[in-house]
Amino acid sequence: MKTRPHSKRPGPRREELAPGECLCDHCTGRCCRYFSLPIDNPATWNDYDSIRWYLAHGRTLIYVEKKQWYLLVMTRCTYLTDDDRCRIYLNRPKVCREYTTDRCEYDGEWTFDKVFETPEQLWEYAEAVLPPRRPKHAKQAFKLPIVSC
Ligand code: SF4
Ligand code: SF4
């Protein structure tokens, strides 16, 4: 990741880099401005309802890659400096040390198998893949005593 000062201008394409040049030196630290975590794949209305809550907070995405669901939170790492370098480069977390420029998001937008940006998008998808919800009052109505005249 970021080891040297670099310009904030749109950088060169990765294939234009000179031998030994570091792609991160031309980047605004895009991989340091979010994190994502795998979540349980939803299977029920309750599951979708929980995920809907994540999306209700804004600056979040739900995406699916290779059948695994993820929560992505767009939030800048506290160690990213104003000139887009890592303040703790030599002591950065393992997840950062293992991340490489090989397939990073330097030159592309995120592309996922599925992505949901709003609760409404997610709900629309749930309605398409799940059986219809039982009305909340259905169970209660079933328990009502039968009154004869
Ligand atoms: S997105 Fe890629 S080029 Fe940019 S800082 Fe992260 S690893 Fe480096
Ligand atoms: S610790 Fe450093 S490399 Fe890791 S996300 Fe934060 S700024 Fe980026």
Detailed description of the structure:
- By secondary structure, the chain is α+β, with helices and mostly antiparallel strands.
- It has one domain.
- It is built from 4 helices and 4 strands.
- It has helices at residues 45-56, 94-97, 119-129, 137-143; strands spanning 35-39, 60-65, 68-73, 114-116.
- Strands 1-3-2-4 form a 4-stranded antiparallel sheet.
- Helix 1 (45-56) packs antiparallel against helix 3 (119-129).
- The longest helix is centred in the middle third of the chain and has 12 residues, at 45-56.
- It is elongated.
- Mean pLDDT is 87; it is low at 1-9.
- The chain binds iron/sulfur cluster (2 copies).
- One iron/sulfur cluster is lined by residues 1, 32, 77, 79-80, 86, 88, 92-93, 96.
In summary, what is this structure?
The chain is α+β, with helices and mostly antiparallel strands. It has helices at 45-56, 94-97, 119-129, 137-143, and strands at residues 35-39, 60-65, 68-73, 114-116. α1 (45-56) packs antiparallel against α3 (119-129).
Q: Biggest β-sheet: count, sense, barrel?
A: 4 strands, antiparallel
Number of helices: 4
Instruction: Specify the helix fraction band.
Output: 10-25%
Give the helices and strands as they follow along the chain.
EHEEHEHH
What's the average pLDDT? 87
* Structural classification: alpha+beta
pLDDT below 50 for ≥5 consecutive residues: which ranges?
1-9
Strand content: 5-15%
